[in-house]
Amino acid sequence: MRGIFILHNVEYYYTRGSVKIPALRGIDLTVDHGDFVALMGSNGSGKTTLAYLLNAILKPSRGRVFSCGCPTDEKDKILEIRGRVGLVMQNPDSQIVGPTVEDDIAFGLENLGVKREKMIRIVTEVMDRLHLSHLAGREPHLLSQGEKQRLALAGVLAMEPQAIISDEATSYLDPAGRRDVLDYLVGLNREKGVTLIHITHKLEEALLAKRVLVLREGNLIFDGSPGKLLREEALLRDMGWSLPPLIRLAKLLREKGIPVPPTVLSPKELVEAICP
Ligand SMILES: Nc1ncnc2c1ncn2[C@@H]1O[C@H](COP(=O)(O)OP(=O)(O)O)[C@@H](O)[C@H]1O
Ligand SMILES: [Mg+2]
């Protein structure tokens, strides 16, 4: 089947008493295997709901969702989907379950019946990569918010998923920690072909993706490359997203008659455009 995620005319409503609260409307979308997609939108625009639909935590109120080739409305496919699609949530407390850091990371592997030796190897590697080794025996509730966020990510990475959805999962990290985690996720995408859906409020982070999706009030209002998004000045203004310094600089140079192509997104590309 083409696409790791396929949505056909998907609607989602939450219900509060007899009131229906629409969260997603008429979404048609295919995400290719190995793609890196940034998902943006204001608070309440439906980003988390979409993440939950992809991971089969929620079933669409209308339409169909296929994840990793499986329809998410078929009960016996749900565990398979959750094993293949790792979701790192906004609030790490909601996904930490183990009594210690290392037990927590091993939890999903234990459920799958992975052999002890392999489990120890994976947990050790993941702790090392996310700078958690010194906290192996610590109770998760004693961790800082940033450490909890790295732990939640570690539990997902240990499962070696085909796709990772990070739902503002770097929001509690300091800039260096944020950059480190994001670089790691991007590395998994580039080197191992793990599909990455990165939900973020930061335009700089979205510009690293190959494709950007923007939700507004449950509607998909933009779907295109980062370069195309930067040309949508009215949309950027509406969403309150100011251009990153590098993009502003490229624009000012262009206004001075220096031919900087609109595809320039990184310092290296800018230097090459000015000094070929
Ligand atoms: N459990 C819930 N019950 C009722 N309404 C909800 C619930 N979760 C989200 N919503 C509503 O659904 C809409 C989309 O929310 P959400 O997907 O969390 O947006 P985002 O992640 O973009 O902030 C919002 O209007 C929100 O208030
Ligand atoms: Mg959210």
Kindly provide the radius of gyration, computed on alpha-carbon positions and rounded to a whole number of angstroms: 20 Å
CATH class: Alpha Beta
Beta-strand residue fraction: 15-25%
Global outline: globular
- Average pLDDT, to the nearest integer? 93
* Broad structural category: alpha/beta
What summary fits the major beta sheet? 6 strands, mixed
Structural write-up:
It is built from eleven helices and ten strands. With 276 residues, it is of the alpha/beta class. The strands form two sheets. A six-stranded mixed sheet has the order 6-7-8-3-9-10, sandwiched between helices. Helix 3 (101-111) runs parallel beside helix 5 and helix 4 (116-129) packs across helix 5. The termini are far apart. It binds adenosine-5'-diphosphate and magnesium ion. Magnesium ion binds next to helix 1.
Name a few traits of the molecule.
single chain; 276 residues; alpha/beta; Rossmann fold; 6-stranded mixed β-sheet; 4-stranded antiparallel β-sheet; 11 helices; 10 strands; 23% strand; binds adenosine-5'-diphosphate; binds magnesium ion
